[in-house]
Amino acid sequence: MSDTLSPPPQGVRLPLNLGLNDGTYMPQACVDVMQRNCHRLALRNYTSGDNAPLRETIARLDGVHPDNIFLRNGSGPILKQVVPHIIRSTIKSSARRMARHVWNKNGCPIITPWFTYSKVPKKASEIGLTVHLMPLGPQNGFQLDISELERRLVQGGGFVYIANPNNPTGNVLVTREQIEPLLTRFPETWFWIDEAYVQYVDPAEHQPFSDLVPRYDNLIVARTFSFAYGLAGVRIGYMLAKKDLVAEMDGQLTDYRLGTLQEELAIAALTDDEHLPWLRQECARQRALIQDGLAGVSGIEVFDSEVNFLLCRFTDGRTGDWLKAALAARGVLIKTFSPLAEAHYEPYFRVTLGTEAENRFLVDQIIAVAG
After folding, report:
1. Which residues pair with 198 in a beta bridge?
2. How many whole angstroms separate alpha carbon 216 and alpha carbon 214?
3. E strands along 18-147, which residues?
4. Which residues are CB-contacts of 201 (< 8 A; sequence separation ≥ 6)?
5. Mean pLDDT score of the chain
6. pLDDT of residue 208
7. Interval 299-335: pLDDT, tens
8. Digit-coded pLDDT (tens) for 249-301
9. Which residue(s) pair with 349 in the sheet?
10. Which domains can be identified in the chain, with CATH numbers?
11. CA angle, residues 182, 135, 162, in degrees to nearest 5
């Protein structure tokens, strides 16, 4: 381990936050939008009240109706607004569920993998809901056991949350061929498929679920512009769901939800045909850079990923929190994980892809403290 600190190279600014999984590059079409709006009259007018131009663009590309689309300032607020509403409505939908909720808080259990976007199961636990965690680990390549999910649904269903591709493992957990029989067989169970990272995956390898929404009332698909489109700074997210649920959620908010610049940037991102193919190639190159750079570090295992981050773990007894503290002292921030019920993640840490200069600097710092 080296304690010597040197100034960061050109193109790297400290602190370097590779713990958040926001994206790096916006589409060139978004740069063009910002340049067109670089004058004093550019943002003087409101958008349409319901952001119709953006909704129509999403509808055309995702194979849904504009009335299936719910827009908000980021996907996090959508989760916070919609999930509690669904849980309450589901519990109140039958006397049996009400009785189960009063008896053991199992009226609408949350069913989700062990290793996933932790805010969903943690928030559910905090408000007293039952959370069923399905095993997901390196022993089987972080693959979701669909038969285990089906077994849990037979016991009474509930609310299924699946990030697909998954965060923090970076792999696709469920395919269309696997999800459609479940949607049909368990119509009283809600399936929330979080496709925050789906744009990183070539559609030839995995087809997104968006166009299934009009066919299945119990399917919800969530999307964001923060990652593959590099627009975390402008906060745009959307949900695809049945029309009456979208209408209920819209009724709780005011019109003019997204501003003019937000809407123009989102439309530009969606219609820039060159961005995603380039981004997938660039992410593959940067993942390989980090994986190759850490391959010689004894005691670190880096798992394969299809998105803009890599899950890693120590295999020699060291912990992710130890590395996090050591790197933070050098101005580099990474992600570690708190225990969730019986699941513990002490050896693990996650790093987000930055620019090539940032990724090389990250590798150098990890080698310096852990090599």
Report:
1. none
2. 6
3. 69-72, 110-113, 131-134
4. 165, 172, 280, 306, 307
5. 94
6. 98
7. 999 999 999 999 999 999 999 999 999 999 999 999 9
8. 999 999 999 999 999 999 999 999 999 999 999 999 999 999 999 999 999 99
9. 312
10. 16-27+275-370 (3.90.1150.10), 31-271 (3.40.640.10)
11. 45
